[in-house]
Amino acid sequence: MMSSLFDFVKELPPWVVLALGVLAGGLRSVWGFVYAHTIGYAITRVSIYLTVEDMEYRDAYVWLSCWAERHLCHRRVNSLLLRIRGSAYFYGSGSETTVDMIPEYGTYYLMHRGRLMTVEHRKEINRDEQRGRPMHSIRLQVWLCWDRSVLMGMLQEARESYDEDREKRIDFFTADSYGDWMSNMIATRPMTSVFHPPDMMAELLEDIETFLRSKPIYEDLGIPYRRGYLLSGPPGTGKSSLILALASHFSLPVYLVPLRGSEMTGEVLARMLMNCRKPALIALEDVDCLKVATSRESKVTDGLTMADLLNAIDGIGASEDRLLFMTANHPEVLDAALTRAGRVDRKLVIDYARDEELLRFYERMSRSHVLPAWPEFRAALPVNATIADAQAFAFSTSLPTRRPEPARAH
Fold this sequence. Notes:
Largest sheet: 7 strands, mixed
Distance between the termini: 79 Å
Structural class: alpha/beta
Helix content: 25-40%
CATH class of the largest domain: Alpha Beta
Radius of gyration: 29 Å
Low-confidence stretches: 86-97, 399-410
Number of helices: 15
Number of strands: 13
CATH architecture of the largest domain: 3-Layer(aba) Sandwich
Strand content: 15-25%
């Protein structure tokens, strides 16, 4: 039938084919105009919309995109995007990489709690002209509804659904090439997986807990609501692991702030810190390796200057409602202005592991590993050993295995 139609069209004069094309285009335009000012207008007037952009409301965009993915996962959608969540790189967390295939950008229809909805996932290339990055948005349209509480209920449902999916994970943010945050979900780290002096750990946990519940006091006194910590000590002593464990314990998102590169300026750094969730844990790692933190000879052409860093941490208009953790192997080289009281409230030395800490690590690892006897294990480690040394030796002796269960008496 189609071949007969094509043969018929070929026999028509060119001007007839052109006229038919113009007529079809005109009819389509007329129908679009009529629809937009009648049926389409009526639907618009009795529908409610919610648009969330990833730049303005990043968290809500993530909640709604995951919510839409969940409701569309059983639909016959043949145009998909690949999304990778999680990475084993961050803080040596050992989190597994998860690959999802989600619906491509476009418009989808679904029924939710008896209401017809339209979900439009959009990507606009030239929206952010300053940085040249694409803008992404989720637009929900609930048909035949004027009640805003319906949209608020969907947003709350999306947030609760997202939180359920990440019960044993925390949000870890790194910066992209535009100076915007990229979200990853990584496995939580229990406090039992870090091995430091119990008295130091108890004091640190109490200090953070006191700060997190003292926001009204800070506001009444007119004191900026932020607190800073400096973790110093030899490499491999567990400074980064401690940061992740604290974030997991208090359910705080972690933001790893990059301070290198000519693209990092004071303005970019201030904007990044202002765009963090509240409360949040901000991490500045290995600051003693950065010229900006050890010398005032940095220039504007270097990107970030010492003045930029100090202003971003506690200058006028600096972000609040956050914990700032800096790590350093050689704290003595840091500029005194960076570590003064008010910028760094507590200084903790994370030193080589004591024998009792190594023994606690040994006992925990021996539950899943076949290890040498404790005296042999300790003798194989350096005199000044770190938990990283003990972990490397434990994994070199055997692979994780379940110990055989004792035979049951019959």
